[in-house]
């Protein structure tokens, strides 16, 4: 096998490339969940676009504001374009029996990917590891909270099922793997997959965390 040209592989080791890839993937997935939420309520195409945008960039916007960074989608028009394309795609798919089940699984993918993305961006900004984990969790969950609130659905924060926990796992595992200065790509992939698998297990087998015990 012919080895790859170092000039081509070098960008794959650049943290900025990794962050951008995770960011675009997270925005696309969460924008699709926002559009699916609008479809569930049978809204018009403008509301589809609004739900897609607010869900796709909501968590990242809060993260950047708290970190004192330029808001990412204001600096790059492609993020908003991705949200609009996701809304149009869901609109064109039309009524499908599997559509709302897809919302849950796309949300699971987004929790893992965006949990890592938010953590990695906070790490790149020089935040403390604990703050990085908090930023990763907020990035992954806040857009979904806004989406559910607008759609009149119970917030993910109020559900017994494992949801936010998956984002916390992805963010925490990424920080742990990066302590020995592991390459960013392997750490990001392992952490994102772990977050997704935890959420997938909750969807498949109904895993939940123990609730507050009643007094006997």
From TrEMBL:
Taxonomically, the superkingdom here is Bacteria
Name the membrane topology term. Multi-pass membrane protein
Subcellular localization, per the record? Cell membrane
The UniProt record lists the keyword Cell membrane: yes
- One Pfam short name: Gly_transporter
- Transmembrane intervals: 20-38, 45-62, 77-95, 102-120, 126-146, 158-177, 183-207
InterPro entries with a match to the protein in the record? Gly_transporter
| Record key words, sorted | Cell membrane, Membrane, Transmembrane, Transmembrane helix
Glycine transporter domain segment(s): 21-93, 104-177
Is Membrane included in the keywords of this UniProt record? yes
Major location (coarse): membrane
What family is this?
Belongs to the UPF0126 family.
Q: Output this protein's name.
A: Glycine transporter domain-containing protein
Q: Which organism is it from?
A: Brevundimonas intermedia
